[in-house]
Records
---
Amino acid sequence: MKARNAYGQFINDNCNHLKPLSEKQVEGIIRTYPEKTAMMLKTKTICTCCGHEFENMPGKTITCPNCHKKLEVKFTHHRYNRISAYYYTLLDIYKGIEVIRHFLVTKYLYKKDSKPEYNINEVAQVWIDGKNKPKIAARPVTPFSFDRWLLQYDMELRQRYYHNYYSSDRYLIGGYPISGGKITPILKKRGLSVKTINSAHTAQEDIIENVYYNSFAEFLLKVGQIKMLEYIINHESIKNYKYERQVKICNRHKYIIEDASLWHDYIELLDENNYDIHSPHYICPENLKLSHDWILKINLKRIKKEEEEKLREQIKQDKKAEKEYEKRIKNFKNMDITDGNIHIKVLPTVKDVAEEGVSMHHCIFRCKYYKKKDTLLMSARNNDGERVETIEYDLKKMIVVQSRGVCNSQTNMHDQIINLINSNKSNIIKFKNHSLRHKKTV
Ligand SMILES: [Zn+2]
């Protein structure tokens, strides 16, 4: 990509000429390379760490008799050369600018009893100077691929690339750290260290960028709320994190948040249930797990109460529909379809339909199935009277439209229920005709 200004041009001119990795750094990569597998073929196993070939052994993890490394076994029909690939990342400084350099490290094993070879190629860089937006320099990729880098081409300025399908940013790499990383004096002054960046559970670029450009991120770092910083970077927006004040109160009370995701969840629940989220009594709990469980229970109770309230309101508004429903199914009231294990009965009132919907967690009531004409709503229960499935039956076509268990599931009694209804078709017709006769005489 052509540079639009002098800074872009500067990156284009220099990105391919940064200092190559030292021998020590390369050794470090090979030493810490995470993949340790054995290729298991039909008759022999090959250690991909030393190339040694030996007889197959039982087990998913085995120890190489030659290099004594613990290996994860991978079954394969053919021996292959390209074993694996991982990203490694170096924090570097070029003329006062922080450059995050990403390297693709590919492991090959070509020959029997020879050590694997590692190809190390720099594929992308993020330039962060604290004044301009972070800039990307990278090699191109194969068309329609996410990160199959075309290594024969140099790096140059690129636009950020966000791939919907992979739902991630191609250049947000976050590789294993390479030793000898450096950060600029400004970043150090803001409380950042190479160690913090390398041990954080977030991409190096994310943490550096946020600390460079956002004062709340800098604050979190300086006061040691690292877990909170990581959580916000990974899950929320640091620019307008809605519980910033709460984090600051925690900090004033020297409360370090360890499980940030649980704490965030807990504060959100306190907030939703109208507890005082400015009180350290609530927001700095001694035992977060217990407090979280406590508020979770309160929240469930509230939701249940609200749901019941809503149902009551709907029943009240639907008085007319209620009357019509009860009139319509009046003659089916005494119908009991049973095989001795299951009893299928109509839901006699709209209140019963509502109760069925609440305890079965489905939408029979909320979606107003009781307003549907020529429809029987039935509940299948076991001998102990426990609900098994709810059935919608079409009285015109004389078929089961649907039969569903809790949360719309299909229970293991589903087929039995359907068969039972189908074999009682004549019985249902009898009740139906009775109801029609009844209608005519009224
Ligand atoms: Zn080995």
---
Amino acid sequence: MSKSIRKPAVVLFEDIIQDQDKRQLDIQSALGKAATVLVYKGEEETPQDMPVEVLLEKLLNSHSFNDGHIGLIVSDRELGRYKSGVISDSVVLAVAEKMGIPVCLYERGIKRSGTMGKLKQWKIKEIVVDGDSKNFGEECGQVFHGFNNIARKLEEIPGKDFKKMTPPEILARVLDREEEIDRIALYGTGEQSVLLEILAYIDSKNPALELKNRYPRILGNWLYTSLLRYPGILLNEIAAASYLNIHEDDFRIPKINALFKEASYKGPFSDRGTWWWRRELDRILENNKCESGFDYARKKSNKQVRYCQCMEGKDHPAGFYCMINEQPVCREHSHGGVSWFPRGADLAMISDREYKKIGPFVGLY
Ligand SMILES: [Zn+2]
């Protein structure tokens, strides 16, 4: 069987021995036959004369771990309790990067981690799920499928095309949106932590081949932690409501929501949330000769539809999205262009209220 069609494995790093089976089972039942979940149990003897990263890489490339054919590493954010004591979370992250394997971290009590915790996690571009969630296995499965979908899409690109394509062109192809190349490229400026991984391979003997194996990780991280997170190309539910100027509660009404069905996002990770293509929303309004989603919804379905209020004052419409409160906000009552927001995310803001609190730290995080 060739490597490309061989079924990938998911490797779990959980340092609390008594939790290993439960987590493995959770993820396995979510994945079904799509992948086998293997656990790094941490019981191996550690040879003293080998750097721990080398040791782990060797192990993951061994037969016990599907010869390194790994579609996703699921890892506890803090791995301090392995018996061997040397495999830490930073070692796992470093080896995953070296091998080009995507990573999904989990954290207990992620909801309690607060604003700064969230900002930090965004800044370092991590994919994190809630380790306490009753849907833990399913969430890991969704992340796996997102990366796996990208891998399958990449297989469809002929090698001779692939060699000539830039990362934004490849991502646009994966998303079936060649028209978004320029905007996707804007999301790349300033995204060093995601795209830096590409630079390391430009000088290798066969960069195209080397990169093709790594692209699921690189593009998946970019899509998940940037394009889907910061509204500009793709808008989450609240950002879409704000952009369309339809009250977010009204936007959830199926009859109203259905007006924009054509614009809904169905690409990789689409089961991790709800998103709309902004360009498609514009197209729907244009085709119906409406100035705003508010006009369109009123005309088409319901005279009672309310406009989308700014979180800083209920008497005026929003239009933009506060990344901290995750609420609609207007341009006047918010700050945009935060240095670590991707350049193309022109709807992503920090509201005045939040900026007052965290303004001094925004540059840091
Ligand atoms: Zn306002």
